[in-house]
Every structure is written in C-alpha cells, then in structure tokens.
Amino acid sequence: MRDADATRARILAAAKKEFAKRGLGGARVDEIADRAKANKRMIYHYFGNKEDLFRIVVEEAYVDIRTAEQTLELEHLPAREALEKLVRFTWDYYLKNPEFITLVNSENLHKARHLKKSEKIEQLFRRFVDMVGDLLDRGVEEGVFRPGIDPVQLNITIAAIGYYYITNRFTGSIVFQRDLMAPEALQERLEFNIETIMRLVCVSP
Q1: What region holds the HTH tetR-type domain (predicted)?
Q2: pTM of structure
C-alpha cells in the first residue's frame, strides 16, 4: 500500500509539472511516466485516462491552496489583521506556486469542463467562502468592516489583484517600462493590494 501511495504521488507530481508546462493538449503521458519513474500502464491503472489525470491534478491544486489557507487560523485573529494575513498569503502563494496559476489558466481554456465533473470542488469552496464570510461578519461585529460585503466577490477581488499582475508580468514589464518582478516592485504591489482591499472593506482604512 505504501508503494502504491508513493507511486501515485510521484505520478501526480510529474503530471502537475507536465500539465503546467504544456497544458492538457501538449502534455505527453510518456513524459509523465518518465518523470515519475513509472510506466504508462500504471498511470492508466491509477488515474484512468489523460483527461481524468488532468482533472485530478487541477483538483489537487485547489485542494493545496485551500488546505494551506486553513493553516492560517484566521478565526483566532482580529478581523483586520486576519484579512491582511489572507491578502498576504494569497499573493505569496501565487509567487511561490506558479504552477497553480498555469493550471487554472489551462482549465479556463477548456471552460472548466473537468472541474464540472469534480465531486470535491463544491464542498472545498463552500468551506472557504464560509471562512471568509465569518471573517467579514466578525469585522462588522468589531466595528471595523462595512456590512453587506459578499464574501465571494471579496475573494474574487483578492485573487484578481494578484493573479492579473503575475500572469501579465512579462508584457506588463514592457508596457509600463519597469521590472514588475524586482523585489521592490513585488513589495510595492503587495502593499498596494493590502491598501486596496482595506479601503474596499473597512469602515475607516
């Protein structure tokens, strides 16, 4: 059983790299097998076909970020501090896990047809939205957040202000004539993201 789990983990890690690099269409099962030190028969045995493997990789990418968010223990912090910590975490996660962004981009190209088949995603995101909703409610009770903010819209905004910057870092560096990935530029952007969200949510930023 341990050998089977280890093999499955190696295949998933190899598939994540291959799909992130080449997308679903360009990824090759042979390359995944070589990376995982497995064979194609084992991949098909554990995961079915290439489409199923891609779906599981995308699922696991979302599981990873949502699991990491749970370790923040935001419920134990004052609401403003918790929200700032969430914004910082999201930004740092995107920077440290570029494969997450490329996998999400790839699935969007396929109009989320793989996630539509997922049994994990709805429950996973319901728990996350509830966490953000509880944070907002706590902030209203503390008198620091405005009432009536939709936790889904807030999450989309937090994701968007980091996601767009990173996915457009190459073209943006040319268009705006600055190195968007320089350490000082990344820190400036993080501070801007935090200020933006606080001005959106707080009674008095």
Answers
A1: 5-65
A2: 0.91
User: What does the pLDDT look like over 1-37, one tens digit per residue?
Assistant: 558 888 899 999 999 999 999 999 999 999 999 999 9
For 108, counting Cβ atoms within 10 Å of its Cβ (0-12 exposed, 13-18 middle, 19+ buried), the class is: exposed
Q: Is the domain of 177 the same as that of 117?
A: yes
Inter-residue contact 189 to 120 (CB < 8 Å): no
Distance CA(174)–CA(104), nearest Å, equals 24
Cα–Cα distance, 138 to 143 (Å, whole number): 9
- CATH code where residue 44 lies: 1.10.10.60
User: Is the CB of residue 85 less than 8 Å from the CB of residue 72?
Assistant: yes
- Containing structural domain, residue 83: 54-201
Q: How do residues 135-176 score in pLDDT, each as one tens digit?
A: 999 999 999 999 999 999 999 999 999 999 999 999 999 999
Distance CA 48, CA 191 (A): 45
Which residue bears the tokens 């059983």?
1
125 and 35 in a common domain? no
Separation of alpha carbons 21 and 102, rounded Å: 8
Are 66 and 44 within one domain? no
